[in-house]
Amino acid sequence: MAGDPRSVMVFAAPADAQRREQLDALAFDGAAAARRDVIVVDVADRLDALALCDLYDVPVGRFAVVLIGRDGTEQERWDAPVPTSELWGAIDGGD
Prior knowledge:
The chain has four helices and four strands. By secondary structure, it is α+β, with helices and mostly antiparallel strands. The protein has a domain at 6-71. Strands 2-1-3-4 form a four-stranded mixed sheet. It is globular and about 30 Å long. The two termini are 14 Å apart. The model has no long low-confidence stretch (mean pLDDT 92).
C-alpha cells in the first residue's frame, strides 16, 4: 500500500467559515501536500458526504479535519482549523 496517498478530510457545513479557512490554507500550501502524497478531500462537496460523516463519526455540519493514513485508518483529528505546519508535522512524524 506504499503507493496509496494519505487523505486530509475537511468536514463542515458548506457555509462554515472554518471550512473556507482550512481549504484556503491547504490550497496555499499545495506543494507541501504534493510532496507528502496527500489528497485534500472537501467532504461538503461530495455526494457521499453523509456516508463519510458516518464512517468517520463526524456529526453532520460539525467542523473537523481528519488525517487518514495510507492504510485507510484515522491517524489524527482536529476540531478547529489546523495550521499546515502542524498537519505536516503529524504526517512527517508518522513516516
